[in-house]
Amino acid sequence: MEITQFSYEANKKQTKMIKTKIIATLGPATTKTENIKALIDSGVNVFRLNFSHGSLEEHANLLDTINKLRSESSHTLAVMGDLCGPKIRTSQIEPSQKGSYEGPERRGNPGLKKGDEVAIVPNMETGTINRFGTNYEHFNRDIQPGDRVLIDDGQIELRVIDKDDNQTTCTVIVGGFIQSHKGINLPDTKVSTPSITERDWECVAWAIEHQLDYLALSFVRSAEEINHLKKHLRDQGSPIKIISKVEKPEAIENLESIVHVSDAVLVARGDLGVEMDLAQVPLIQKRITKMCRRLGKPVVVATQMLQSMIETPVPTRAEVSDVANAIMDFADAVMLSGETAVGEYPIEAVQTIKQIARNTEAFMDEHNSPRPQIEADDALAVTATLARSVAQILDEVNARLVVTWSQAGGTARLLSKSRIDAPIVAFSSDELFCRQMSLHYGVLPIYAELPANTQDFIRRAEETILTKKMG
């Protein structure tokens, strides 16, 4: 099996692996086989199937393509299904002379203006800009006078002034054009709906059937919600791992307990920046990445990493700095959403991430930072101590690679969180665990048959390294 995850630089003796993992969301811009193959060749480690868009049949077609390509390639890949969660959205909005987005009359029309009144009617399928529906049937029950209603990532702000059993009346604080099926955030409201909806359970069943590697749980508020999904997966005999998406204020309040029970954590800066003070998002990101490092859990930074590359081939300087800072915050992976799902330059976006990671990682390797003790559970406590010791030894010894047998990925994960400068070559005889290790920073998973003993493993590892010219 040939290793393709190493990037060989001309006239350099030492191979240079990009250790930061790249997650790419598939969508209309990347459904063709040649596009997905190009993403793999460019360095994507995990593909994201966003269940908020597209049918399960469409996702099955994408998964078939991924499976075919990874069977032909040595590049180990994981697939993550992203559950919708209780995403509240506007109804269909009819074009009207009052300023709906879809109407040709938008030009020169201000849409909703400050001080206008609008009515929100749960379960209304089609409405107008001044009276529209929402898919959340308990909207009127949960909302209270004085609460804010933010639409389209906070572009439009309403405030509740009255409600009854049929509708909620709001006044416009920040106006604009309301579009169909746009997200609604309720930062002041305790939403009573569960984190896993009926639609989500359908997607979970599909993920189990199709043997996905990860499921991302949206709008997590407590550890109990994660444990509920994990128990369901165990009962079904599924080894799928859970990535908890932090995007609600309640999640920040319960952060440590959430990180403890999660297999990985995703900093969902989009909804987080709407639900909370936008200026707090960078600080929350640092808090989450620091906690995940301490607790030995992989962490993903997501949303608008290279947003401008949806339409332009070159990122802004601020975006480059943002990606570099996420890596210096010890993120294991960065995720591209619209950049690869609907963007004009999906391949270029991945290549840009790769180039930023190469330079940032080189800087970090030259400036070793203190290594905190990882607070692993009892089963991996000794392994966590050994991982930290290996990292400290490598600070003194110029090793080219670290090789380990990591059957279920635990050892590889803890070595990864110790931020070892050298690539970590992790062998396992389980193809699923190999795929799941694709998310771990600096880990190069390799499938191999179970060795007879330690000497047999050392011999095989040496043969693999020499054959693949990894050392």
Which features characterize this protein?
Pyruvate Kinase, Chain: A, domain 1; alpha/beta; TIM Barrel; disordered N terminus; 3 domains; 471 residues
Question: Could you explain how this protein is built, in words?
Answer:
The protein has 471 residues and is of the alpha/beta class. The protein folds into three domains: 14-85 and 195-366, Phosphoenolpyruvate-binding domains (TIM Barrel, Alpha-Beta Barrel), CATH 3.20.20; 88-185, M1 Pyruvate Kinase, Domain 3 (Beta Barrel); 378-467, Pyruvate kinase, C-terminal domain (Pyruvate Kinase, Chain: A, domain 1). The chain has helices spanning 33-42, 56-72, 139-142, 198-209, 223-235, 249-253, 255-261, 269-275, 281-295, 317-328, 338-341, 346-366, 381-396, 410-417, 431-436, 454-467, and strands at residues 6-7, 16-17, 21-25, 46-50, 78-82, 88-89, 92-93, 117-122, 126-127, 131-134, 148-151, 156-163, 168-174, 183-185, 214-217, 241-246, 264-268, 299-302, 333-336, 402-405, 424-428, 443-447. Helix 5 links the parallel strand 15 and strand 16 (241-246). Helix 10 crosses helix 12 (346-366). The longest helix is centred in the last third of the chain and has 21 residues, at 346-366. Residues 1-15 and 97-109 have low confidence and may be disordered.
